[in-house]
Amino acid sequence: MSVSLRELWTVFHGLIFGSLFLLAFAGGLAGLYSLKPEWVTVSGIQERIRRLMVGTWVMAIVAWATVISGTYFIYPWYRAKPPEGADLTGFPRYLLLSKPETAEWHKFGMEWKEHVGWFAPILATAVAYVVAYYGPQLAKEQKIRRTLVWLFVVAFATAGVAGLFGAFLNKVAPVR
Amino acid sequence: MKTMDKPNGPAMAAILAGAIGVFVIGVMTTLAEASGSFGSMLAWVGPVGPLSGKTGMGVIVWLATWIILGSMYKGKNVEPGRITQWSWILIVLGLLGTFPKFFDLFAK
Asked: Which residues of B touch A107 (CB under 8 A)?
């Protein structure tokens, strides 16, 4: 039983960071949505805002870790150019492009994933900052809170696109 | 104890800067597809290729805009409706710019 360094990085990038991101998103979304003065007491708001701050910052930090590890550690292995006549198994981008039935996984899936994934950390950081800036006052700021909920959802959706295609690509042409 | 409400300026600066950052990633992605030489210029880190410059430009513009808007809006209340509206427009355009079926239309 062995795992290569490349496989280990893909596990960290997709599974470990991805799971943490999902957990933080679920907690953050529930916290943002339910932070209404009519639903919670003053002391309840104080307690919830602390959890919300932790959740949103965890989501932002994990999103940064995911895109940086994906772009600067795993992506160079994915796009490495094979030497003449090499077995393409170790060169996922070229393996996918070598057959018409798999080329679209790169041209659509990877091309979308590698760019749109970067939206998640930027938008999640904006949300985390605004939550930390307002603190308990956020409960009164209904319009801002609604904007944050949607920004949070877009951050999650973009990470979801990247994660979903990442999972499929790792099945069709894994980085090994 | 009653506390003064915080002005919305710094929060709006963070939201608008984030939207500008993702919009720039979309613009860079489409421009790199439209011009091979521009794409090559964005290959800041060799093994990563143009992706390093496209996303690097987005992050640099995002942080720079955040600093500038943050100092402009510090301690101020700004019109949230207009800034939120512009932020969503920029985010949607950014999403469009990173969508392969869209940027492929400009591929050379």
From this structure: 100, 104
- Residues β-bridged to residue B45: B49
Task: Per-residue pLDDT tens, chain A, 176 aa: give them.
Answer: 788 999 999 999 988 998 898 888 888 898 898 888 888 787 888 888 999 999 999 999 999 999 999 999 999 999 999 999 899 999 999 999 999 999 999 999 999 999 999 999 999 999 999 999 999 999 999 999 999 999 999 999 999 999 999 999 999 999 88
Rounded to the nearest angstrom, the minimum Cα separation between A1 and chain B is 30
Q: Which residue of A has its CA nearest to B85?
A: A147
Q: Is pTM, for the whole model, over 0.90?
A: yes
Give the 3-state secondary structure of residue A4. Answer: coil
Q: Minimal Cα distance from A132: which residue of B?
A: B11
